[in-house]
Amino acid sequence: MNRKLKLWELERVSEDEFKAQQKFPLIIILDGIRSLNNIGSFFRTADAFNVKKIYLCGITAQPPHRDIQKTALGATETVIWEYRESIVELVIELKKQGVFVCSIEQAEETLFLQNSLALDADKFAFVFGNEVDGVDQQVINLSDVIIEVPQFGTKHSLNVSVCAGVILWEFTKRYIC
Question: Quick one: which of 8, 123, 139, 140 has the most CB atoms within 10 Å?
Fold first, then answer.
């Protein structure tokens, strides 16, 4: 019999241990995310994948907010985050710091996620855009690469926070394998 574990048996690190541990060089940039539940999901996913930082840009809401907390389950207290009004200025700044900027979008020239191991960089930032309009064209133009998650159904896209989980898992494997 394969018994399901209780939460206390999972042996997760404490909040203090998490804050002190070395983070993977992965940055999330949210631009114009409207859904507070999506924002909370990003925080929870960033905690799970040991992300270095989240940037909230434009109209993206900021903690503390009850609806963000509902899905973040406390991750807004463990994941480092910062608000920036201008995503364009942020992307330019990160690129100057040697961060490889990846917009997650569907475009004319994309790199499918399964081919992302070919990317030779040490630090990555992933730009996730508005739920309706996606990543702003100015940011697409500034990005080092546009990554697309292949899809095989009838819908045009994944939910943005679900997409983040898929992307972050693929890149996290670089640091755990």
Answer: 139
| Residue owning tokens 């924002």 | 39
Fill in the DSSP letter of residue 83. E
**Among candidate residues 55, 32, 1, 36, the one with its CA nearest the CA of residue 133:** 32
Eight-class DSSP state of 13: P
Q: Which domains does the chain have, with CATH numbers?
A: 22-176 (3.40.1280.10)
Q: Which tens digits make up the pLDDT trace of 68-94?
A: 999 999 999 999 999 999 999 999 999
The whole-angstrom separation of Cα 80 and Cα 84 is 13
For residues 170 and 147, give the distance between their C-alpha atoms in angstroms, rounded to a whole number: 12
